[in-house]
Write a structure and sequence with these properties.
single chain; mainly alpha; two-stranded antiparallel ribbon; 6 helices; 2 strands; 63% helix; elongated
């Protein structure tokens, strides 16, 4: 997603840093137009929310129980359960699973 956003931002601003800042500050909408932008955003659609974190993982990491993303997720889940198992259950219930 970040890659697609950056590609659109660079195109719309024509690479001008001050214009990039203005676009971000004013929350100007942008639409993907180039093949590269569309591909970057399409790839982002296949991301899966990583439980107990604020980041996403790709399908490959989601399917691999030994992936770095799954490892970090497991550590944070363990930490939440050590604090209070009902807290961990509540977090799990309210997280979007993608």
């Amino acid at each position: 997603m970040d890659q697609g956003f950056y590609l659109m931002l660079a195109r719309v601003s024509k690479g001008d840093i001050d214009e990039m800042k203005r676009i971000i500050r004013e929350d100007e909408s942008m639409m993907p137009e180039t093949r590269e932008e569309i591909a970057a955003l399409t790839d982002a659609e296949h991301m899966v929310s990583t439980p107990f974190t604020s980041f996403n993982m790709c399908d490959e990491c989601a399917a691999n129980p030994r992936s770095p993303a799954r490892d970090i997720s497991g550590r944070f889940e363990h930490f939440a359960r050590e604090i209070d198992s009902s807290l961990a259950d509540e977090i799990a219930r309210h997280q979007w699973r993608g």
